[in-house]
Write the structure tokens for this entry.
Amino acid sequence: MSRIITSESDTDNELSSQPSDLSTSQLLGQEPPEPLVVAGSDRSITMERKLELYSRRLSQIGLADKDDSSVSSASEQVVKTPTEQAAPRPIVAEKVRIKFIPIGSIPAIKPSVCKISAAQSFAAVITFLRGRLAVSHVFCYINNSFAPSPQQNVGDLWRQFKVGEDLIVSYCGTVAFG
Amino acid sequence: MSDIHHLVWNGGLNTQIEIDKSLVFMDDESKPLFINVRLPRESYFVLYASSLLHKIKLKLRKDIDEVLPYIWFEQDGSNLPWNIPIGTLHDVMNPRISELPIEAAASSTSILVWKIRMVYGQELPQNHIPLTNGLEQVQKYWMHQWKQACFVLNGTSKQIMSMKMDDSKAFWQSVISRNVDIFSSMSDKIVPSIPRNIPVMVHRQNYMDFISQPLVIPQKESWKTTTLQTVLDSSEYTTTEQNTLAVVCQGIDVPCSILIEELYRDFVSLDGFLHLILQQQ
């Protein structure tokens, strides 16, 4: 199995009333186990899935290339990273909504509601916020209560702790809920 | 607290830790340095890192405080994240006892030993949470895990957030000093008699990065009929392969017919979650 990171820098700074897409931000640092990135046309999505399935089948029969490899298309850049620790999660096309609420003097992000692939880890959310706010670190809390582990799956958090249809993520530049 | 939970809390693992050569003074041709120790299942590696380094402090190249933020543990090249209980890490990375060769599992003279490495490096593994604030960071992480578990159990974290400061400190100290009675008295203030949901984390054998957190709700509004099988049935990750999976909790196979609430009360880990490991049969 492989991990896929997609960058669409054009959309990152746009202000819009529509929910934005976390998967379009560039992900650095700790990467999610198997993000499914939806970017560009439906055709590119299908191709991406096919590549991922193909890679998974190769892994299962021991033919996968352990080295990094990259695939790029006209609309997006896809980087594959080593596969040995990838988890057997099913491909989930579902996206979930996250509502970001600033605490204290940290700026609000616009739009405040974003969509993210349910297969991402919470580390991707933290990385997204750090990028949007241009800060070196940010403290995130679910429901003004607890900070989840970076390895936790966003889809799982959404199912467990959503309010209405949104997962409420409060963020702060300093510790808010020790 | 049940006798089973006492047994779970006192469970330990015979562990042989190979020390990274870059940590200690030794020739390239020297034999590797090992530390043999029995580690409790219900604890975190990071709580023992300092005392393990003290055992070899005369051979260390640098001060203990200098190397502590840059060490981690691994098995067969896979990082063992410090933020997951030791027993769970062992069960994820190793086969079940029933799968071991008969002579190893049944012999009265053999001891099962978990062989791992203590590694040192400036570049930390990808799934390793950097330790920037020592044990205080570990305490905060652990407390947030409990807040999360409390939220799942009660629908709010009020029970733990309104805990007295002294109680909160005593709760953490019970983890450090391994005092099961104080730990139980504190956790009893958080776990209600009838939980709303049950905090469960599902791991997969040999996949250190896989953590799934299924929504465990009572079937027909009663925990009396909600079994482990019910949880597996509702899990999107196991429906296609349930017949080939065994469920391991605290090192033992658990039957799918067991009531999930009972399993939680007896087998809950130090972070307030029930850690289940899915292994191939």
Notes: The domain at 200-280 of chain B is CATH 3.10.20.90 (Ubiquitin-like (UB roll)). The mean pLDDT of chain B is 90. Chain B has three domains: 3-128, 135-187, 200-280.
